[in-house]
Amino acid sequence: MVAASFLLAATALHTLLPAAAHESLASLPFHQTTVLASHNAHANRAAASSFFETLGINQDNSIYHQLSVDGVRALLLDIKLDGDELRLVHDPLDYGGFQEEMENNLVPFLEENEEAVVSLYLQTIGDVNTGNDEAIRAVILERLKETFSTLAVNGVPLKELTFKYDDAMWSNHNDWPTISEIVSANQRLFVFVDRSEYISSGFMNNQQVMRENDWRGIESCVSRFMWQSEKVSLSNNQQWSRLFFMNHWCCDSGADTFGTTVSEGSKLIGGGDNGWGVLYKRIKMCMNNIGGVKPNFIALDWVVESDEAKEVARFLNFGGALGTNQLCESDEDCATLSCNYSLKLCQCQECSDLGCGGCSTGDVCLAGGDGTLNECRSIESKQQDSSLQEQNSTQVQGSEIYYCGASYFDAVGNCSTGVQCPNGNGDCPDDEVCFGPFECTTDSDSESQEDQSQLSIADLLQPSLPTLEPSALLDSSSNTTISALSSAPSNAPTKSNATDPPVAPVTMYCGETYSDAKETCSDETACPGGYECPSGLICFSGVKCFTRPPSKAPTPQPTTLPPSTSPTEQTKEPSSEPTDSPVAPTKSPTAKPTFDFSNEYYCGSNYTMAQATCYTTTACPGGDPTVCEDGETCYSGIKCIAPPSVSPTLSPSFTSPTLSPVSGSENAPSGSSSTGGFGSSGTTTAPFVWPESSGETRSSTILYVLITGLHLVALLF
């Protein structure tokens, strides 16, 4: 049998949000929109015609229902060339003809939504067993041309609706056109393929315009292809932004993902795989690993459970409040990173600043009473708080609010004169996006204290020399204070008499989770600007850092005991052989190790490995891959802030000469040292390793083999 498979994604952007939100969506460029996708949309319960076909489904409703009711705006379809016809399949199971399903489901939806923008994502696999893949692809292309010529939306053939990136009308665009421009041009059908020979038919090669994460599991987020490429590589166009296609399903089969997505009589932790607590956390992981780029397509199993996923997409498009009220057992189960442990429900994250997680812009989150959730309150309802009232009445730029900008750094750098966007992207000019929340520091603020948001990674990591000041002891007998160190010099530098200006407390720290950020918070993990964290870590706000830093006071002078009148034990006889005299301690501290923190290029077999081993692996400044070892390449955008401790050693302490050596020296104390905290080698994240196959996976494999065998028997008879 001549066979080939496709992966097709059809994305429509029209009805994702209510009418008011759609107006803002229409003004967004294509590469700044986020929509949901249905993985194996054709493999649904409505299309299954036998018991065995129900075993291979990933969705519940028909394609039309997924588009019009479930909120899906993307379809992933597997297509096989069976004889002379394109069929929709999932492994050996057949779910109908491609053209028939498109005619009965996709076309009606497009006709009912005349402003819908649709994208098709096709991946050709071919028949590797016969070696006729080139011939097969040629036949597939001809059948696709026939389908696009035959099917029509309100009388217009699909081939006339394809988006043509090289059309003269887009020649003056520095990036993708807006949704409204695409609709006005009636080029609202995007087609992405994996074969360059298809480009002449009006299709775009997916690896020239997209980057995609690996689809296997949701515990990590690594590259499938073109992970570090920021721009497209089209003919005569290398300046538009690459689109990001994000795969998000946990397991190999729909039966396995059903249990982690669809709730049966009880809620799932974090809302399940398609809920706020799981999906939003994974999106932030992917965005951190890919350089802050949000996904344009989010592919899911069981989109019948997509209400919270639609809210996540809405949040990525327009901002707003993070979701709450999901079942939780820890803070990490919540998008807001705040779980009410008595009610076991996610709640807003308590804070008194604008931009609290789980609250709308302009609200604060107040602690709930016994047995109640935290509550979002508007500034106006909290006027009795004089300090907050003063902050709100003058709208001081020290508060955390949202600003428009062409990029995050543009919004930060020009916030004092930039446009504020409390309602999201709709408040911004056409060429800008809403960023935040973050604290905008004025010029006068910069004069009084250093603007920490402008510090580089190297600045944040530069260890400070000890600034120690003498401590005082209280004489309990006389209630007078005496200097503890007045009679003995200190080997550590003392603090000057000048009074340091007060420093505002930092409440933003890096971490893998909110709990991790809170447990490891220190000067080295602070991210006051919201963007200083390395790849793989997230900057969390509202962290109250209770971790006690190392003492900055010098060690008090040892107390000298009076002579003892009690007899002491007789010491052992001196050693019969002479020993070496003690070596005098060095009087200068060891040199501080050097490390180029400004470099963001490192070698590795993959991006995750390059990040995890950046301090010990080969650096490739400027992106030169020739310095890397075989099997490795040079990855960019890696901010290496987890090396072994680079803090300088303190000045040495001097001790009295040792007594004459005696036998039994094994009882002598030995020196020891330890390092730890953020950045120690013991905390380096290990590269992700796939677990061994479980019993459930083996059972799924056996079931798959049985289904395949039955299918072959059916073909023979």
UniProtKB/TrEMBL annotation:
- Where would one find coiled-coil regions in this protein? none
- This protein's superkingdom? Eukaryota
Region of interest (Disordered), ranges = 482-503, 551-592, 651-694
Give the signal sequence positions: 1-21
- A Pfam family (short name) is PI-PLC_cat
- The answer on whether this UniProt entry bears the keyword Cell membrane reads no
Task: Output compositional bias ranges, type Low complexity.
Answer: 651-673
The record, for Gene3D superfamilies, names: Phosphatidylinositol (PI) phosphodiesterase (3.20.20.190)
Query: Which InterPro entries did the record assign?
Result: PI-PLC_domain, PLC-like_Pdiesterase_TIM-brl
Q: Polar residues bias: where?
A: 489-499
Question: What keywords were assigned to this record?
Answer: Signal
Question: Which stretches does UniProt call biased (Pro residues)?
Answer: 551-565
* Name used for this protein in its record: PLC-like phosphodiesterase
